[in-house]
């Protein structure tokens, strides 16, 4: 964009503006997992099925993945201040619609609106903050910004759980309303409007085909189980649309000089391998949260505030390790920290395979903390390795793709674990049910202390056990995902800054 480096009149205004955009960054990241600890209440209130509950997260993530790549172009074309305020207003609209929703589709629609606004707020918040800082301070602030994003992701469920336990699930979205008002007023008063003198170029064809492939794949994964997969014409349409979008995008990339994703990015080995590993990090982090909270809330019967509070150890481990990594001297080879972080994440998921219906809260807290420490080590180290060999001219575009890989990983990860969870629950229910006979039921329950259960009670007990086994099986998928990408660490080059 053609604009002066400093958009604020003085240092005090610059600090106020940075605080406002950091609050916006925290708000949009916290709203992603905010309903995680209260899914049972939302499902009961809106008559939402289990597969629709997964859309609460995937709708938000997929929508933000659509608008994130185009946010900078919108700001350059229509004005940074105008676009940012419009995104804030749109975000508030999504919050209000969520609180008045009476059907699952209305609530998912509200989450889509929140996600679309979030995809604009996140990169533009970073851009506004960077413009208020001297160039030598921007690198350090980038770490602060990432820590705020992570803090929002891991603290959202605890906030939502506490509010829902003492009030209701709908007020969880009201928390963001005063924050949004404050941010809007600060931006209105202190941010100078700016936009490019000339309409910037943007590869709409590449962006459109890439988005078509992404949304079609997401719809296929989200709707496949409900529509009985390829027995449904809808799933065929989504599969064909996704395949067509991917084909057109690849042909566009291979035949055009300038396009949505610069081909030069894919010539840097460290960047490509790190982006793949970062995709797996996103796959594991939010999918683990999407499985753990319902397990505690719906299967083990923990109240929402306790369910939310058990995400805090993961948050402390993640943010603490992330901040400590910023103090590691440059002479240390970051590849070792990438390997250690991946090992900690794999170990944490392996421990999750030992979860039992008879356990208390401590195994969840311990495994969450270990996983948090692993991801907190992995993310900054991987970022350092990814960009250490990349041409500085490619870093802005590389940063966008690198962050998008985490978002895409989270979106696809949540959808996949939901699919396998429902399939495994049905399979385990059938397997357990086949072993129940009137004689075995009488032998186990036909006592004074354990009276013979009703057919409904017995079915509920089997469903409960089948669901728990299915959840544990999904932790195995997440562990395998990290195991699969871990060998890529061996092919990373030593970062130049570590010499």
From TrEMBL:
Recorded superkingdom: Bacteria
Pfam families per record: MFS_1
Transmembrane annotation, as ranges: 55-76, 83-102, 108-129, 141-163, 169-192, 204-221, 233-250, 271-291, 311-329, 336-355, 361-379, 400-422, 466-492
Gene3D superfamilies: MFS general substrate transporter like domains, Multidrug resistance protein D
Cellular localisation: Cell membrane
Boundaries of every Major facilitator superfamily (MFS) profile domain copy: 17-498
PROSITE patterns the UniProt entry points to: MFS, SUGAR_TRANSPORT_2
GO CC annotation, single: plasma membrane
Any one GO MF annotation of this record: transmembrane transporter activity
SUPFAM superfamilies: MFS general substrate transporter
Topology relative to the membrane: Multi-pass membrane protein
Keywords on record: Cell membrane, Membrane, Transmembrane, Transmembrane helix, Transport
Family statement drawn from the similarity comment of this UniProt entry: Belongs to the major facilitator superfamily. EmrB family.
Listed name of the protein: MFS transporter
Organism classification: Bacteria, Pseudomonadati, Pseudomonadota, Gammaproteobacteria, Pseudomonadales
């Amino acid at each position: 964009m053609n604009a002066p480096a400093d958009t604020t009149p003085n240092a005090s205004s610059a600090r106020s503006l940075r605080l406002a955009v950091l609050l916006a960054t925290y708000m949009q990241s916290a709203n992603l997992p905010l309903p995680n600890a209260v899914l049972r209440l939302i499902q009961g209130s809106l008559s939402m099925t289990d597969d629709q509950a997964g859309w609460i997260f995937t709708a938000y993530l997929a929508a933000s993945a659509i608008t994130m790549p185009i946010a900078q172009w919108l700001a350059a074309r229509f004005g940074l201040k105008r676009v940012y305020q419009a995104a804030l207003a749109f975000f508030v609209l999504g919050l209000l619609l969520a609180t008045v929703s009476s059907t699952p589709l209305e609530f998912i629609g509200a989450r889509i609106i929140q996600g679309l606004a979030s995809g604009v707020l996140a990169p533009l918040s970073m851009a506004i903050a960077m413009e208020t800082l001297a160039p030598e301070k921007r690198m350090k602030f980038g770490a602060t910004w990432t820590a705020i994003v992570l803090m929002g992701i891991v603290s959202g469920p605890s906030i939502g759980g506490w509010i829902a336990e003492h009030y209701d699930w709908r007020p969880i979205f009201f928390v963001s309303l005063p924050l949004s008002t404050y941010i809007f007023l600060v931006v209105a008063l202190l941010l100078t409007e700016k936009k490019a003198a000339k309409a910037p170029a943007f590869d709409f064809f590449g962006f459109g085909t890439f988005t078509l492939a992404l949304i079609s794949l997401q719809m296929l994964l989200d709707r496949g189980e409900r529509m009985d997969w390829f027995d449904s014409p809808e799933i065929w349409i989504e599969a064909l649309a996704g395949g067509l979008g991917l084909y057109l995008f690849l042909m566009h990339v291979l035949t055009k000089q300038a396009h949505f994703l610069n081909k030069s990015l894919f010539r840097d080995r460290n960047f490509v391998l790190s982006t793949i590993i970062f995709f797996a990090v996103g796959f594991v982090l939010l999918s683990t949260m999407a499985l753990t909270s319902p397990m505690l809330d719906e299967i083990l019967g923990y109240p929402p505030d306790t369910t939310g509070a058990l995400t805090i150890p993961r948050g402390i481990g993640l943010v603490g390790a992330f901040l400590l990594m910023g103090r590691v001297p440059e002479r240390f080879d970051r590849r070792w920290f990438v390997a250690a972080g991946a090992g900690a994440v794999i170990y944490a998921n392996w421990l999750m395979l030992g979860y039992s219906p008879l356990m208390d809260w401590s195994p969840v807290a311990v495994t969450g903390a270990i996983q948090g420490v692993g991801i907190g080590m992995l993310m900054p180290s991987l970022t350092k390795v990814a960009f250490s060999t990349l041409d500085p001219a490619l870093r802005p575009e590389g940063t966008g793709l690198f962050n998008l890989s985490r978002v895409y990983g989270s979106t696809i990860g949540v959808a996949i674990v939901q699919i396998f969870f429902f399939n495994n629950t049905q399979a385990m229910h059938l397997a357990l049910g086949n072993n129940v006979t009137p004689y075995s039921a009488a032998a186990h329950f036909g006592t004074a202390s354990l009276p013979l259960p009703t057919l409904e009670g017995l079915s509920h007990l089997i469903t409960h056990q089948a669901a728990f086994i299915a959840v544990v099986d999904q932790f195995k998928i997440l562990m395998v995902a990290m195991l699969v990408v871990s060998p890529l660490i061996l092919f990373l080059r030593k970062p130049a800054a570590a010499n």
